[in-house]
Amino acid sequence: MLGSKRYRGGVHPVGHKADSRDDSILTDVPLPPMLYLPLCQHTGDDALPLVQIGDRVLKGQKVAKANGRLSANLHAPTSGIIKAIDTITMPHPSGLPARAIWLEPDGQEQWTELTPHPDPYSIPHEALAGMVEDAGIVGMGGAIFPAAIKLRQGRRFEIKTFIVNGSECEPYLTTDDKLMCERAKEIVEGAKLVRHIIEAYRTVIAIEDNKPEALAAIRQAAEGIGSIEVVAVPARYPMGSAKQLIQAVTGHEVPAGSRSNDIGVLVHNVATVYAIQQALIYGKPLISRVTTVAGGCIAAPRNVEALIGTPVQHLFDSCGGVTSAPSRLLMGGPMMGQVLPTADVPLIKGSSGLLALTRKEVNEHVPAPCIRCGRCVNACPMGLLPLEMASTSRKDDFEGAQDAGLRDCILCGSCAYVCPSHIPLVQYFEYAKGEIRDRRVGEQKMLRTKELADARKARIEAEKAAKAAAKKAKKKKAKPAKKPEPSSEETA
Amino acid sequence: MNTTAAAAVTASPHAHDRSGVDRIMLNVCLALVPVTGFGIYLFGLPALLMWMLCIVSALASEALCLWLLQHPMSRLLDGSAVLTGWLLAITLPPWSPWWVAVGGSAFAIIIGKQIYGGIGQNLFNPALLARIALLISFPVPLTTWAIPYLNPDLGQSIQILLGNMPTLIPTPDALTGATWLGDSKAAMKAGGDMTEYLSSHFNVMDAMIGERLGSMGETSALLALLGGAWLLKQRIISWHIPVSLLGTLAVLALVTSTSEPERYAPVGFHLLSGGVLIGAFFFATDYVTSPTTKLGQVIFGMGCGLLIFTIRTWGGFPEAVAFGILFMNSLTPLIDRVTKPRVYGRNRQGDVIKHVPAQRRVN
Fold first, then answer.
1. Could you identify which of A35, A66, A225, B47 might form a hypothetical disulfide with A71, taking C-beta atoms 3.0 to 4.6 angstroms apart as the criterion?
2. Are residues A281 and A207 in the same domain?
3. pLDDT at A112
């Protein structure tokens, strides 16, 4: 109930985290022969290129600018020559092409001029948010929502609790874990900066209790800095989901259909906070990120800090290569990650992990009928009835699916993880959500068409009337002497 | 060099807890091994033959239905038909004739399960439904209980299976004894005293170990508990249904028997006789026919306990477990509907929870 810090449901997937946790973050990945920078690595529209083919760009130079509110800037990850602005295969299950800037590194790593800020606290809040926006920072836990927008929203609302999300509940991924271990000072500094920008009352760095080293490192770094709490939350998927984390930290639930800032909470991922710190202190734009390269097919799984745009295959190779043909390639974790059509796609800002899984790890089976065991109901962290949602979605009864909980589903996949019948529940939900969205768009389109048609009709009629009136007026003007009609009759 | 994934596009998650319907069924079968083995030890070869016949005919009926419905034959391997046949076998008198076993299994699979649409769709537990259908249609063979340790040889066993039971055994009147439940009920009707009956007939040790009359699965309380413990340990079932069922029955028995001990049976008698334990752990917990929510399961278990007590005490049939569970099966959809969990961010009615909106700043 309200006020309880334990959220219901959830699952304990096998972690597989030890494989990539042992080694430190690999920072000297050799430059790939070509970097591919997709123009859309964020929620909004494609960024607009600022460079032309043949241009030489410097490391950190802005190469594309945000186009609209939800868009984000893009910077050159290294110095080199723009070879093309052309389509590439995107790191997305569809494998659909999208536009990208092709940058051939020249190997000189020559930085553009950065403007460090030794004392960012003296800068006005709004300007700091602007600097985050300028650095092209998006949510790096996979949400890819522009960070500056969240900061500005945070300024508009009274933020009681700012949560730094270090839970990292997805199996295999140790990106945030390693980042917290190795760059604890920077993360705490970043948390301080964000707290300063949004003027939060309480700042909590929440870390799952299966990361004792990260907890210790952050605790040590936060020592002596006032009012930054470091909280160990129980390791249970999906702890990293904002709604569940907010409940675990504050005891409050985000009302259905509301955002977390409506109840005075703001959540940022640790990697995002780190990027914000780098941008505000050193003036560095977001041109690289730490990502976990793991899975049963990877020879030496570990975390790498790689330039945005590096081909995934290049990163696999720098981790010892692929030992056997992977059954599935993923971007992100296995619970909510996206299938990659091939390894010839670039690393993007939202790639928290790159996984090459064996057949055994994926454990795919032919779906069997539901036996109503109820495991999905108990696993659902939102309190929904996944079995009902699936059976109604299958029958295209979307109203029924919404009632059974589809409208509140966060697509975390806990239900499908525990389903003994191997029913692809999330696939049904995504299908149903897509259909509902399409229908709504269709309805809105129809409504808009009708509005436009009505408006057109009204306009034409008005024009007609105006014309007629003008004619009349002209007539009147032409023959003003002829018996002037009384005005009362005209209006009658 | 270049890595491409073999699989087609699939939605997340790309991990699984490695559970499976076949594993669940296998675990339930494993949990049934002790009671079944003991039943075969007590009642000899005829029981073994009857048990095998139930399973084979359940599989055959399932195969027939899958073939008619053009479903994949691989579904035979999920173990659900084997389990249904097995569960039916342990509810039947151990020396049941062949046509009871075959007819019962066919009824369970065809009428009890496949007519509803196959696995997961049936409203009632197929094995219990079949048992009740048999009990109502053929009351005599369904209430003819063999005495333990008669140990007929193979030839005699086949004769028993063919239905020629009474002529073979030297002491035919020893065969058709009644179970404690039936016996005590008859004694009560004849104006007897419950305390008197119990002191002369009922014995806790016998009930625990199981050297008594009954169907294969209901004689030994200890082994039934062992099977139930295995299911709990393997997390195939949760405690909610068995505990609420047994608890309700125990409380009702305690209240009535302390107030009128000469009329009502005590707690131990209720819990240890008949199929209560096997029913609470193996039949009431059937996934398909019991509620999915924990609260629903508690309500379901309490309902079963109440009905078992009521039918046993005041009903016409001595054995009430099957009726009680079947009745509650029919209420499962309703229970599921009223015990829907509360959705995150909403109240029980499904409305958005109220909150004090974070105030906008004035800057």
1. A66
2. yes
3. 92
Say which of B3, B18, B342 has its CB closest to residue A313.
Answer: B3
Cβ burial of A338 (10 Å; 0-12, 13-18, 19+) is buried
A287 with A59: CB under 8 angstroms?
Answer: yes
ipTM reported for the complex, 2 dp: 0.88
For chains A and B, CB pairs below 8 A equal 213
Structure tokens of B118?
């196959």
Q: What is the pLDDT of residue B3?
A: 56
From chain A, the residues in CB contact with B357 under 8 A are 262-263
> Residue B165: its pLDDT value, please?
62
Which strands form A265-269's sheet, in the order they lie side by side? A228-233, A202-208, A161-166, A265-269
CA distance A88 to chain B (A): 16
Q: What's the whole-model pTM score?
A: 0.88
Residue A2 placed within a domain: no
A483 lies in some domain: no
Which residue, among B2, B3, B124, would best test binding to A if mutated, counting the most A CBs under 10 Å from its CB? B3
Same-domain pairing of A144 and A269: yes
Query: In chain B, what are the domain boundaries?
Result: 21-338
Owning domain of residue A347 = 290-362
Quick one: A165 and A262 in the same domain?
A: yes
Looking at the partner chain, which of A257, A316, A368 has a beta carbon nearest the beta carbon of B78? A368
- Which of B118, B292, B361 lies nearest to residue A377, judging by beta carbons? B292
The set of long-range contacts for B108-114, using a CB threshold of 8 Å and a minimum separation of 24, is B108/B58, B108/B61, B108/B84, B109/B58, B109/B61, B109/B62, B109/B65, B109/B81, B109/B84, B109/B85, B110/B61, B110/B64, B110/B65, B112/B84, B113/B84, B114/B61, B114/B62, B114/B65, B114/B69
**How far is the alpha carbon of B280 from chain A, nearest alpha carbon, in Å?**
16
Domain match, A130 and A62 both: yes
Residues 222-281 of B with CB under 8 A from A: none
- Portion 293-312 of B in contact with A at CB < 8 A: 293-294
Chain B residues with beta carbon closer than 8 angstroms to that of A237: none
Domain's final residue, options A339, A362, A385: A362
> What digits encode the pLDDT tens for the residues B217-233?
788 889 999 999 999 99
pLDDT greater at residue A133 or residue A475: A133
The answer to whether residue A40 scores a pLDDT higher than 60 is yes
B3 → closest Cβ in A262, A329, A368: A329
Same structural domain, A106 and A191: yes
Tell me the per-residue pLDDT of A223-277, one tens digit each, with 9 for 90 and over: 988 789 999 999 999 999 999 999 999 999 999 989 898 899 999 999 999 999 9
Q: Tell me, yes or no, whether A161 and A211 share the same domain.
A: yes
CB contact under 8 A, A258 and B346: no
Domain spanning B21-338, CATH architecture: Orthogonal Bundle (1.10)
The whole-angstrom separation of Cα A111 and Cα A105 is: 12
- Which has more pLDDT, B52 or B178? B52
Instruction: Identify whether residues A387 and A442 lie together within a single domain.
Output: yes
- Residue A487: what pLDDT? 46
Assign B172 a pLDDT band (cuts: 50, 70, 90): very low
In chain A, how many domains are there?
Answer: 3
Structure confidence at residue A363 (pLDDT) = 82
When CB atoms are compared, the residue of B4, B78, B341 closest to A343 is: B4
